[in-house]
Specification:
The radius of gyration is 19 Å and the shape is flat. It has one domain. The two termini are 26 Å apart. It is built from no helices and 17 strands. It has 225 residues and is an all-beta fold. The strands form five sheets. Strands 6-7-8-11-16 form a five-stranded antiparallel β-sheet, with no helix packed on it. It has a five-stranded mixed β-sheet with strand order 12-13-14-17-15, with no helix packed on it. It has a three-stranded antiparallel β-sheet with strand order 1-2-5, with no helix packed on it. The protein is 0% helix and 29% strand.
C-alpha cells in the first residue's frame, strides 16, 4: 500500500510510507505513527496500542504525498526491475522546501521477496529550477508492452516511459499527433527537462540505455489481452 500520511505535525513529520499489508495489522492512525511515536494531538490516548503499531517497510520523506503504486510485471525493463514497486509522489503543498513531484522505484530483495527499505528517483523534473511546479504524478501502471504509463494532474498529461538497451542514452519529449490526445492542441510553452534513472548494473555489459517519454494516446497500450 501507498500511504499519504497526516499533516500539521511539522515539515519533516511524519514520513509517508509504502508497505505490505498484514491481516489485522495496525499502523497507528490516528494516535501513533511509525511505531510507538504518538501524535501530539492525541497525547495520552490508547497507551495499550503503542507496542502494536507496525513500522512500515519503506519510509518516504514527509509530505511527498505518495499516491498510486504498481509492481513492475513487464518484460521490457531489465530483469532487476521485475517485481519492484514504482510509486507516484504527488508532491508537498505545506512544506517550505518542496519534496515529491516524481516517480520512484522501491527495489525488492529477490531472495526474500520483501522490500529493501529504500527507494530511488526514477522520473523527476516536474519542478523548474526556479521552483515552479508543472507536473504532479498521480497514477501509474504497467502497459501490456512493458512500458510504464504515468498520469499527472499538474499539466493533465499521461506519460509513457519505455526502455531500449541498444540506443544512445537520451530522453525525448514528444507531442502526441493523435487527434484524440488527452491534451490535444496544448503542451508546455517552454522547454522542459525530464530526468530518469536506470541504475548502472552488471546487466548492461557496457551497453547504453534509453528512456523515452511520450504522451500516451494509443489504445493498445491499455489493453490487457
Amino acid at each position: 500500500m501507498s500511504t499519504n500520511e497526516r499533516d500539521e505535525i511539522g515539515e519533516d513529520l511524519p514520513p509517508d510510507y509504502i508497505s505490505s499489508v498484514r491481516p489485522g495489522g495496525f499502523y497507528g492512525w490516528p494516535w501513533y505513527y511509525i511505531g510507538n511515536h504518538q501524535d501530539p494531538r492525541h497525547k495520552g490516548k490508547h497507551p495499550e496500542l503503542a507496542d502494536k503499531v507496525i513500522v512500515p517497510d519503506v519510509l518516504v520523506e514527509a509530505h511527498s504525498a505518495s499516491l498510486n503504486l504498481c509492481f513492475y510485471t513487464g518484460d521490457q525493463f531489465p530483469s532487476e526491475y521485475k517485481g519492484d514497486i514504482f510509486a507516484a509522489f504527488h508532491g508537498s503543498w505545506n512544506r517550505m522546501k518542496r519534496t515529491g513531484y516524481k516517480v520512484v522505484r522501491a527495489p525488492f530483495d529477490k531472495s526474500t521477496g520483501k522490500a529493501r527499505g529504500e527507494y530511488e528517483d526514477f522520473v523527476t523534473g516536474f519542478v523548474t529550477p526556479d521552483g515552479k511546479v508543472w507536473g504532479r504524478p498521480v497514477g501509474i501502471t504497467v502497459a501490456k508492452d512493458g512500458s510504464l504509463l504515468i498520469s499527472e494532474d499538474g499539466d493533465k498529461t499521461i506519460w509513457r516511459v519505455s526502455y531500449s538497451s541498444t540506443a544512445i542514452v537520451a530522453v525525448s519529449v514528444e507531442r502526441a499527433s493523435c487527434p484524440h490526445a488527452p491534451i490535444a492542441g496544448r503542451f508546455c510553452e517552454t522547454p522542459v527537462q525530464i530526468s530518469w534513472r536506470l541504475a548502472q548494473t552488471p546487466y548492461s555489459s557496457g551497453s547504453s540505455q534509453r528512456v523515452t517519454l511520450v504522451i500516451a494516446t494509443h489504445e493498445d497500450w491499455f489493453r490487457s489481452d
